[in-house]
């Protein structure tokens, strides 16, 4: 069956999703933040972290024990370093609070970091690191994740894909925004392929016995494949430690599992901000970043390659196009969003 999709105005979509989360008991401010993170991901083409997650998030807020009114607070501080308890809020609420604090302290200390506990799924890391880059800082963000990978050569889910995000400011060019997990793909992207009835690329996943597969359904019930084999496993493990053990959050299998879902309030994250001016003259630094970006773009291309991109460039181009032409959502995402909206009694004529 051929895949079809519909386009939606980003502002209308953002307002709708804000109303949905407001109907779950969130404050206007927190609901707007949560909606903005999802639409931001969709605008960048990262639909695995976009509004397809609305039904899951509503379930977290209304059934699974996440506190829609959870309030982050600082529980420990040492110079430019803080530990934040998310108060069992949605992860975006606690992570945004922590990034704001890290950026504020970096203005004074040059480098600042925040470790977060008592949190939940926090969405795409790019959302947070881009804010730092826009303030002439290098942003860093990582988070733990439910176990979906095995150690290299294993066949048991004990390790999360634990993504890393970094944002680097530029002068005339768009900031470099890197955001990727240490797996061939995210579980969300595999789910999208299953929704569409499409095979996944070889190298994304294994079945439950550790055999490589291109069947999205087998992959959803199986294991995500690490990038770079054992190297990806090592990096994911380190990001998991960074995002969990500095704050006392859950690590690995302590988080829960894919069958029963995550334990509410067990997630941890880590963010940091580095003020460029503390090390180098900002203008010179950003000009050199521009040069590095153009060096990639002007590199001799392999046969059949039309263009070379730096991290975040495809997303920036997508964001401009989708802001103009509308955010594309597939039929399954639209149907699930419509069902969720209806169940909550939220008005949404434009998705009927």
Kindly describe this structure.
It is a single chain. The protein has one domain: Ribosomal Protein S8, Chain: A, domain 1 (2-Layer Sandwich). 40% of the residues lie in helices and 18% in strands. It contains 11 helices and 14 strands. It has helices at 10-23, 28-43, 54-62, 91-109, 126-134, 187-196, 216-220, 230-244, 282-297, 313-325, 331-344; strands spanning 5-8, 73-78, 81-85, 111-119, 137-143, 164-168, 176-180, 205-206, 212-213, 223-224, 256-257, 261-262, 267-275, 327-330. The strands form 4 sheets. The chain has a 7-stranded mixed beta sheet, with helices on both faces. The protein has a 3-stranded antiparallel beta sheet with strand order 9-8-10. The protein has a two-stranded antiparallel ribbon with strand order 1-14. The radius of gyration is 20 Å and the shape is globular. The two termini are 22 Å apart.
Short summary of the structure?
The chain is of the alpha+beta class. Helix content is 40%, strand content 18%.
Question: How is the topology of this model organized?
Answer:
Layout: E1 5-8, H1 10-23, H2 28-43, H3 54-62, E2 73-78, E3 81-85, H4 91-109, E4 111-119, H5 126-134, E5 137-143, E6 164-168, E7 176-180, H6 187-196, E8 205-206, E9 212-213, H7 216-220, E10 223-224, H8 230-244, E11 256-257, E12 261-262, E13 267-275, H9 282-297, H10 313-325, E14 327-330, H11 331-344
Parallel strand pairs: 3-4
Antiparallel strand pairs: 1-14, 2-3, 4-13, 5-6, 5-13, 6-7, 8-9, 8-10, 11-12
Helix pairs in contact: 1-2
């Amino acid at each position: 069956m051929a895949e079809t999709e519909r386009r939606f105005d980003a502002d209308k979509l953002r307002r709708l999703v804000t109303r949905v989360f407001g109907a779950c008991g969130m404050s206007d401010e927190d609901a707007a933040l949560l909606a903005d993170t999802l639409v931001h991901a969709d605008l960048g083409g990262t639909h695995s972290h976009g509004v397809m997650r609305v039904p899951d998030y509503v379930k977290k807020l209304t059934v699974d024990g996440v506190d829609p009114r959870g309030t982050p607070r600082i529980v420990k501080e040492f110079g430019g370093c803080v530990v934040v308890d998310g108060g069992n809020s949605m992860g975006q609420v606690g992570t945004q609070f922590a990034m704001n604090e890290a950026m504020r302290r970096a203005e004074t200390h040059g480098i600042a970091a925040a470790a977060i506990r008592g949190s939940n799924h926090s969405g795409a890391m790019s959302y947070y690191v881009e804010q730092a880059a826009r303030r002439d800082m290098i942003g860093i963000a990582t988070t733990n994740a439910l176990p979906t990978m095995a150690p290299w050569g294993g066949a048991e889910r004990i390790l999360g894909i634990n993504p890393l995000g970094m944002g680097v400011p530029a002068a005339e060019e768009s900031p470099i925004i890197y955001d990727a997990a240490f797996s061939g793909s995210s579980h969300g992207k595999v789910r999208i392929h299953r929704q569409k009835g499409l095979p996944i690329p070889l190298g994304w996943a294994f079945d439950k016995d550790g055999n490589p597969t291109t069947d999205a359904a087998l992959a959803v019930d199986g294991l995500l494949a690490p990038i770079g084999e054992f190297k990806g496993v090592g990096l994911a493990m380190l990001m998991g430690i960074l995002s969990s053990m500095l704050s006392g959050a859950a690590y690995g299998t302590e988080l829960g599992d894919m069958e029963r879902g995550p334990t509410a309030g067990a997630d941890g994250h880590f963010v940091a901000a580095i003020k460029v001016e503390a090390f180098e003259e900002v203008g010179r630094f950003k000009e050199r970043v521009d040069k590095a970006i153009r060096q990639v773009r002007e590199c001799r291309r392999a046969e059949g390659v039309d263009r070379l991109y730096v991290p975040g460039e495809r997303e920036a181009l997508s964001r401009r196009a989708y802001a103009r032409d509308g955010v594309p959502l597939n039929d399954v995402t639209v149907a699930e969003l419509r069902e969720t909206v209806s169940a909550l009694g939220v008005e949404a004529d434009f998705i009927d």
